[in-house]
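Input record (one chain):
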Amino acid sequence: MYNRDYLSNKTNSSGYSSYKDEAYSSSSYDSAPTDIKAFLKSTYQLFASSLLAASAGAYIGLGMLSTIASWYWGLVILEFVLLFALYAVKDKPGINLMVLFGFTFISGLTITPLLGSVFAMPGGAAIVAQAFLMTSVAFGGISMFALTTKKDYSFMGKMLFIAVIILIVASLSNIFFQSPILQVVISSLGALIFSAFILYDTQQIIKGGFSTPIEAAIALYIDFLNLFISILQILGFLNSSDD
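The corresponding structure, as predicted from the sequence alone:
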């Protein structure tokens, strides 16, 4: 879960922003201006590439779990550094792609402890596959709804920002309590919150809320990643309860 600047309403410097109010008046992808369609295409291409980079990081990380465990917090810090750096270089061609894929690759490494613990369970591979499938279906369904609905969900921005802060505090608190039940509650709330973020961020893309496709892609990637982690934790808990 990462910091998002949802409390400000900035005007983008790109020509794409000039369409934000006109495009959303119809709230339909089919009737959107060509510039917005091109922006969406670039965004989803970068999003898909980010998932591939993260998958590569996770695959490599699973082969060196002990090393990842030793350097875990260092990797987490590096992950945040790359995330903030990405926003700083988002308008610099070439460099922004390197930082984007560097960030997503490292994020793949940092989820390997969770993946490793689930893979160690009976039927662990099936659980991971099920979590990924559920996340993909949810992401696709919510995205299509966001692209076609006429309702404006911009009002959720501040509420979601507050919800993420509460979720982070609860997650940090559970580091000390180590309560499986509390973790399931946190994961369930996380799944709901990041499902709502997918809806919110997709509509923000249509409205011109992101100045570059990279900025939009990383928002969607963070939503997808956190939804996947939440679902995986829930399925992992349910599987361990059955043993």
